[in-house]
Amino acid sequence: MLDITHKEVKVRKVLATGEIILKNSTIKAIREGKIKKGDPLLVAQVSALTAIKNTPQIIPMCHNIPITKGEVRFNIKENSVGVEVNVVGEAKTGVEIEGLVGVSVALTTVWDMVKELEKSEKGDYPGTRITNIKIIKKEIL
To answer: Which of 13, 71, 78, 80 has a CA 20 to 30 Å removed from the CA of 40?
Structure first.
């Protein structure tokens, strides 16, 4: 782990995004509340917030920093679900990894919740994919 002793505590913000590509029929089932496991977006929101707060336990070289805000939003499109994760912390180091972990876990949770509808007859997921995970904006105040 890097030594950040010399750095000042500052408010640090990040916006991270990503999306999961799904069948149109799966998107329809999400919109209509017909997913057997429950509401994938609600479960993914809670999963993302939990992941943000626990990032140092998942990514070993991350510092344990105080998170002061975590926010998760979804955008349902014709064949995908997009997610935006905003993270704010007051720390000596940034919150980029927390944002990326939040996005990754949210999208993986959606996949888990809808996998029954996405699976082919062979048992694979030919069209399902998580993509475009990235940092959109980073601020240090």
So the answer is: 13
Nearest to 75 by CA among 12, 132, 139: 132
Distance CA 102, CA 43 (A): 13
Mean pLDDT, range 26-43, rounded to an integer = 98
CATH C-level class of 20-140:
alpha beta
Q: What are the residue boundaries of the structural domains of the chain, listed by start?
A: 20-140
Positions annotated as catalytic residues are 112
Helices then strands, counting H and E runs in the chain, come out as: 4, 4
Nearest to 90 by CA among 78, 98, 82, 79: 98
